[in-house]
Amino acid sequence: MKLMKKVTPLLALAICLIISVNARAQFLQDSNNRPLVEKKYMDITGSPYFNDTFLKGTVRLADGKHYENVYLQYDEVQDQVLFKNNIKDEIPSVFEVPVSAFSMDLADGTTASFQSLTGDNLKPGFYQVLQTGTTSLFKRMKKNIVENASYNTANKEKRITSSTSYLIKKADGKYISLKGDKKAFLSALSGRSKEIEAFISNEKIDFKNDEDLRRLIAYYNGLS
Fold first, then answer.
1. Which of 128, 131, 114 is nearest to 217 (CA)?
2. Can you tell me the distance from the alpha carbon of 113 to that of 128, in angstroms, rounded to the nearest whole number?
3. Model pTM above 0.70
4. 45: which of 9, 55, 159, 192 fits an S-S bond (Cβ 3.0–4.6 Å)?
5. Is the dihedral of CA 148, 149, 150, 156 positive or negative?
6. What separation in angstroms does the CA of 190 have from each of 114, 136, 183, 199, 209?
């Protein structure tokens, strides 16, 4: 009887380990992943990523499959989602099946959500969802690698540059690309420009602040 008491916990542990390994293998098989072995960013100034560390999140693939509690990193140069099943995994992977949407839990307790968008007059790629409703607002942060020759040397310095743009989806499903300034938003939200301009003035909307832009679109949706 004493021997059975010792064996039973060990057997239970072994079963748990087998289930865990099988579940992980099933995830890898289902996601059609490909290990990312190449090192793309060497001797470069600046970060190519939205998040420098892998963050827990969820993923929805174009084939309809949905995964939770995976660790994600968004490469804004390649416009590519990297993932790890376990935060301790050394080598990240990429999905072979296109990603249609993903979200990550940020350190400040908020969630950053992204959608893959395509359409007329729209550069396809991942856009961060800032506000949804009759009119929705998205943000696009695009990063590039530029090389500058150092003074009096043949060496070239590589650094990351970034540009930010916004996208509004109107009730008719059409997209409007715009810069982050007052004039662009007033033009895109035409029809209620007087109310919008008053709201911008009263609320001291900062067009470089995502939270202010969320409030602006939420107010505009409330006018409809």
1. 131
2. 6
3. yes
4. 159
5. positive
6. 26, 15, 11, 14, 21
